[in-house]
């Protein structure tokens, strides 16, 4: 089946423990020490952890309280998104020296299509190595990379030799690589889905490949078709240099649970202000306002309202959020509130990048990676 597909040379670059590494770079006293970005206090949630902290089991999305139990010497540092954005732009400037086909996924990772590149280098592996070296020399941070024939395999491969390493999966190695892969390593298979697959005897790519399309559709819904094709190395998504933003949001976790709507309104005012600032900075507006409520028992509720016109004004966002807050009685005291704006007015532009016009290349042919 792979024989009929065009071969692309895709690199997935992933910065190593980006937020934590930036903090250690800016403060040499933190180098070699276990640090957590965010998560300070008893209610905070960690955004990132250094590799020294990860050895103790500290990881992102973990509460600061649990993290300090796992690692008593853990050092908490504040998030600094302005600094992360500054560094991210420098990294991307390096990417653009090699190709214009760069698709950022976040501040710390991106896909690059180097099938045809500005350096005229036929080896995607050597390009990835050169990019990683330049990031280290010019910026002072390390990055890992995955290199293969499509975005899915490149992303999976980038996690193999972290930190500060890379892995290439050549065309003739793809099928065996996927068959041997633990199902938990498949990008798009979350914890809940992995447990469900385990219950059905699916532990590796080989087990997944043995299931029919009908079986996967029946047991995993719309995702079944995705699993069926990716385990066969088929993922035709091109690197899209102009990713379309679908929503914009801000939220706050409180040091003490809130039980009064009056106090919540004060918090929503600050959150709406942050959302409006981000909208103006991104030069977008939206129609759908969503209020996110996380209760003290950690249950999550969302309430949405779609307006007949695009908005970006703080006061309209806040008024709509207020309406949603009073829409129905709260189930419990509240530990987190968030506001997001979706259904944005971003125009869906056609991908202007020139498509690769090569004839399909057999995976048995020599194709330098």
Automatic annotation (TrEMBL):
Compartments where located: Cytoplasm
Keyword set, alphabetical order: Cytoplasm, DNA damage, DNA repair, DNA replication, DNA-binding, DNA-directed DNA polymerase, Magnesium, Metal-binding, Mutator protein, Nucleotidyltransferase, Transferase
Active site annotation, chain numbering: 109
GO MF term (any one): DNA-directed DNA polymerase activity
Residues holding Mg(2+): 14, 108
InterPro entries: DNA/RNA_pol_sf, DNA_pol_Y-fam_lit_finger_sf, DNA_pol_Y-fam_little_finger, DNA_polymerase-Y, DNApol_IV, PolY_HhH_motif, Rev_trsase/Diguanyl_cyclase, UmuC
Catalytic reactions on record: DNA(n) + a 2'-deoxyribonucleoside 5'-triphosphate = DNA(n+1) + diphosphate
This enzyme's EC code(s): 2.7.7.7
Taxonomic superkingdom: Bacteria
Cofactors required: Mg(2+)
Keyword Transport found: no
Annotated site location: Substrate discrimination: 19
Cofactor remark: Binds 2 magnesium ions per subunit.
Chief localisation class: cytoplasm
Similarity comment: family membership: Belongs to the DNA polymerase type-Y family.
NCBIfam families: PRK02406.1, PRK14133.1
Role summary: Poorly processive, error-prone DNA polymerase involved in untargeted mutagenesis. Copies undamaged DNA at stalled replication forks, which arise in vivo from mismatched or misaligned primer ends. These misaligned primers can be extended by PolIV. Exhibits no 3'-5' exonuclease (proofreading) activity. May be involved in translesional synthesis, in conjunction with the beta clamp from PolIII.
Subunit structure: Monomer.
The protein's name: DNA polymerase IV
Organism field: Psychroserpens algicola
Organism placement in taxonomy: Bacteria, Pseudomonadati, Bacteroidota, Flavobacteriia, Flavobacteriales
């Amino acid at each position: 089946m792979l024989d009929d597909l065009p071969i692309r040379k895709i690199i997935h670059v992933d910065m190593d423990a980006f937020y934590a590494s930036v903090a250690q770079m800016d403060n040499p006293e933190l180098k070699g020490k276990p640090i957590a970005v965010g998560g300070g206090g008893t209610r905070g949630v960690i955004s990132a952890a250094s590799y020294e902290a990860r050895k103790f089991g500290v990881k992102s999305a973990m509460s600061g309280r649990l993290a300090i139990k796992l690692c008593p010497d853990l050092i908490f540092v504040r998030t600094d998104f302005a600094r992360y954005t500054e560094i991210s732009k420098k990294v991307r400037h390096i990417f653009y020296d090699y190709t214009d086909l760069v698709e950022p996924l976040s501040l710390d990772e991106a896909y690059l299509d180097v099938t045809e590149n500005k350096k005229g280098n036929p080896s995607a592996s050597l390009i990835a190595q050169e990019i990683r070296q330049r990031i280290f020399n010019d910026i002072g941070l390390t990055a890992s990379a995955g290199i293969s024939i499509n975005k899915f395999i490149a992303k999976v491969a980038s996690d193999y030799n972290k930190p500060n390493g890379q892995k290439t999966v050549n065309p003739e190695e793809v099928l065996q690589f996927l068959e041997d892969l633990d199902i938990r390593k498949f990008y798009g298979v979350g914890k809940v889905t992995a447990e469900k697959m385990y219950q059905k005897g699916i532990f590796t790519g080989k087990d997944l490949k043995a299931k029919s399309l009908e079986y996967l559709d029946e047991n995993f819904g719309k995702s079944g078709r995705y699993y069926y094709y990716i385990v066969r190395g088929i993922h035709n998504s091109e690197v899209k240099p102009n990713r379309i933003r679908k929503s914009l949001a801000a939220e706050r976790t409180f040091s003490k649970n809130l039980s009064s709507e009056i106090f919540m309104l004060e918090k929503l005012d600050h959150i709406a202000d942050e959302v409006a600032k981000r909208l103006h900075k991104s030069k977008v507006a939206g129609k759908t306002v969503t209020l996110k409520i996380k209760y003290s028992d950690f249950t999550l509720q969302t309430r949405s309202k779609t307006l007949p016109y695009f908005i970006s004004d703080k006061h309209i966002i806040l008024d709509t959020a207020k309406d949603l807050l009073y829409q129905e009685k709260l189930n419990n005291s509240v530990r987190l509130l968030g506001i997001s704006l979706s259904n944005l007015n971003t125009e869906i532009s056609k991908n202007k990048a020139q498509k690769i016009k090569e004839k399909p290349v057999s995976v048995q042919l020599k194709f330098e990676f």
